[in-house]
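Each record in this resource describes a single protein on a pair of labelled lines. The shape at a given residue is found from the number at the same position. The record below illustrates this layout:

***
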Amino acid sequence: MAEQRDKDLNAPTSEAEAAAAKAEGLGGMTMHTGRGVIHALIIAGQIEGHCEAPAAAKSTKYEQCIPTLVAVEESSEVEGLLVLINTIGGDVEAGLAIAELISGMKKPTVSLVLGGGHSIGVPLAVSAKKSFIVPSATMTIHPVRTTGLVIGVPQSFTYFEKMQDRIIEFIVKNSHAGAKRVKELMLSTDEMTTDIGTVLNGVEAVKEGLIDAVGGLGDALDALHAMARGSRGGVKRKKG
């Protein structure tokens, strides 16, 4: 009986708490509100790709994000997607795969950069139809890097250059930033002490054309619900 009472005390006491518990376990949740039904996808920590992240590291697994995005797009109930981003980056191909899926969705999508949207987090942030960043958040733009053994032949560096071009092309296609400027930010040598690249705060990210607007959760939700209302009325919203 005592064990049963402990279980009851620890159990969620409301739908909101149950949703929060589910979100913690799955990295996202579907919310039914008076304004409509939306899904919030949380991209936090390190983007995990073909190799598992260290056991102590917080990570977002692309094999979990991909089916979630497909389910949201196919759902007859969910009207829009909110992407909450606080990532240090991670696997380039995994992050780009998630970003391409979000960019290719026909449903309304809004992204919000919180603590940081670094490295491959930049394409993830710009992939939504409307993007926001809180004033205190930062975004780090730098060239493609790798750890471990690298074969020192021209083909290896050509591969990295092509991967970098893919990232720049995606950023330019899904934001208001120009390719030349993005590359300049990537290769800057006077911004970071132990690396090359550029760190942008919220206002600077908007000024550079990477993010649409500085704003918080309320702004992102308002924009998403407005887009959803437009979709119900047959109005298509496009980025830019």
